[in-house]
Amino acid sequence: MDTFLQQVINGLTAGSVYAVVALGYTMVYGIIQLINFAHGEVVMIGAMVAFTIINALAPAGLPPLAVVLIGAGCAVPVCMLVGYSMERLAYRPLRGAPRLAPLITAIGVSIILQHLALMIWSRNIMAFPQIIESRTYFIAGAAITTVQIAILAICLGLMGALAILVYRTPLGTAMRATAQDPQVAGLMGIDVNRVIAATFVIGAALGAVAGVLFGTYYGIAQYTMGSVLGLKAFSAAVLGGIGNIPGAMLGGVLLGLVEALGAGYIGDFTDLCQYGFLAGAISACEGGGHFILAGSNYQDVFAFIVLILVLVLRPQGLLGERVGARA
Amino acid sequence: MRPLFDARARPWLLWVGFALVGLALTLLPFALAQVGTTWVRIANYAMLYVLLALGLNIVVGFAGLLDLGYIAFYAVGAYTYALLASPHFNLHLPFWVILPIGAAIAALFGVLLGAPTLKLRGDYLAIVTLGFGEIIRIFLNNLSRPVNITNGPIGIARIDPFSLDGFSFGTYDTVLGLEFSAPIKYYYLLVLVALAIIVVNLRLQNSRIGRAWEAIREDEIAARSMGINTRNMKLLAFAMGASFGGVAGGMFSAIQGFISPESFVLVESIMVVSMVVLGGMGNIWGVILGALLLSFVPEILRWTVEPAQHALFGRMLVEPEVIRMLLFGLALVLVMLFRPAGLLPSSVRKRELAERSETPVGHGL
């Protein structure tokens, strides 16, 4: 029973981060039907920028919380800029082109961002400095750290803020209108291009925060972390019903739970599993490999299996509406 | 295929052309060996990419199904060969037995991937295939326990080279005063296999099957109402593309002598997709051009950029590998932005991509 509760806590923590990343995918998909393949790389850039700043400020003796906040505060605008530029340069010219064209472009953008990050930060794994004193609380035999509590709280806060933004503000109304029908939205006086750019920027900002949280949770960041994280978050978005904001939140949390419970119980015959994230990362560093971070144990299979099962059995996702079979 | 010149008017020109290309292909390895055996190896890897790109072209170019996990079939072929011809299980079957088995197993995996994804739309399909590719790799990485099948991340070493009736592709021979090193032998084999696959591709393209694929790519519902069995045709595309990948994988295994899951990462799939996209989806010659360009240009860069950086800055600022990957990324983005049908577009595909569809209509957030 301890294992179960422990894995539920771990799963909720990871899942809430997936949910925040998934929001970035789902908002963009909802509005322009593009799988923004490069979103995972935006998350990675967020984590890398924040880690650089945090590592630089760590010896300065500022309070740890302030250091982390400054780090995140620098990461968010950088990612917003990245999000805006990729929309402007790579996706906007292709609006209205056949579906596969922007998808292929997105893959290209993802490769470019990843290798630019490699150029800037090298292959080394960046470690989170030991500045936060993590306290551990026990609930019915399962441990929960202050970091986990903070991550859960921040993710809940972000999701709440996004919900208010989308459902209660003029920009949110414009976004929903554009998602329903860009042409009619344009006729109603909505600047569709601006709304789409805003969507990318908001998604990127969420991604930046998620990157910082994810990096803080696992204590490391590397230029390859975005691809697997991105794929998982995308799976979460599909699980909840892509294009559907509550769906992305639900999907993220569910995926985190499935993964953690799966890993917790499969761990018996692959002893790397529970902390496989670290073990995989280290072996990738030593082998000089790519895309290995978090990629080398069965834990990562769950996301893909969930993705395939959802797409085969219920392509509209848990909360999504039935969409046409044809593009 | 776009005719380069009117062969019907002067049929002999075609044969002269074939003879010239044949001569060039025959002499190429010796010319490259003058520069260094490394370049023959590079040519071999380029040929492997040509095989892969041609295989993927069936799935992406002909049938219009974007497959981002294509390298999984390459992996299946490679591991099939490695397991059946290495000291790992102490099996040493001859290559002409294993390659068809590898192709068949890869085709089976192709159908396994295709069957559940038949109803998916293009972009969803892309992601599922990507997930499938990763699943295969993760299993290759982890199937060393509890029973050691794939030897995990360490990979399988000492894989047998191809050999036929005492003639081994792995050894050094001198015939008629010409030096045949192992890479040169494999080069000729690869050229032969590539030619065979090109012929199969050309014949497929204008066959009943090829036209059915084209119809599915253009409009699946219309194709079905014309009496095309879209399910079987799509599965066939997956199986055929996969089997080519499997053959290429087997050859890779033998040429390299060592394989590990490292060789079958997502980036490799994306590279093959880049080749197909850059060259021109659906056009065999374009795809070959794309594969050759994206194999050779990075290597040439590797040999020029590194010394240039040392000369200019005294140290290496940017690794050639990074430049290579940036090049792949840029190729994808720039081709899609400025030449969406690729460098050598297929005529049909060009028409198709030129038509801009209406603004997509969303479904609400």
Explain the overall architecture.
- The complex is a heterodimer of chains A (327) and B (365).
- Chain A has 327 residues and is mainly α.
- Chain A has one domain: ABC transporter involved in vitamin B12 uptake, BtuC, CATH 1.10.3470.
- Chain A is 71% helix and 4% strand.
- Chain A is built from twelve helices and four strands.
- In chain A, the strands form two sheets. In chain A, strands 1-4 form a two-stranded antiparallel ribbon.
- In chain A, strand 2 and strand 3 form a beta hairpin.
- In chain A, helix 1 runs antiparallel to helix 10, helix 5 packs antiparallel against helix 8 and helix 6 packs across helix 8.
- The longest helix of chain A is centred in the first third of the chain and has 31 residues.
- Chain B has 365 residues and is mainly alpha-helical.
- Chain B has a domain of 243 residues.
- Helix content of chain B is 67%, strand content 4%.
- Chain B has 13 helices and six strands.
- In chain B, strands 1-2 form a two-stranded antiparallel ribbon.
- In chain B, a hairpin with a 2-residue loop joins strand 5 and strand 6.
- In chain B, helix 1 crosses helix 2 and helix 7 packs across helix 9.
- The radius of gyration of chain B is 21 Å and the shape is globular.
- The termini of chain B are far apart.
- At the A-B interface, helix 1, helix 4, helix 6, helix 9 and helix 12 of A face helix 5, helix 10 and helix 12 of B.
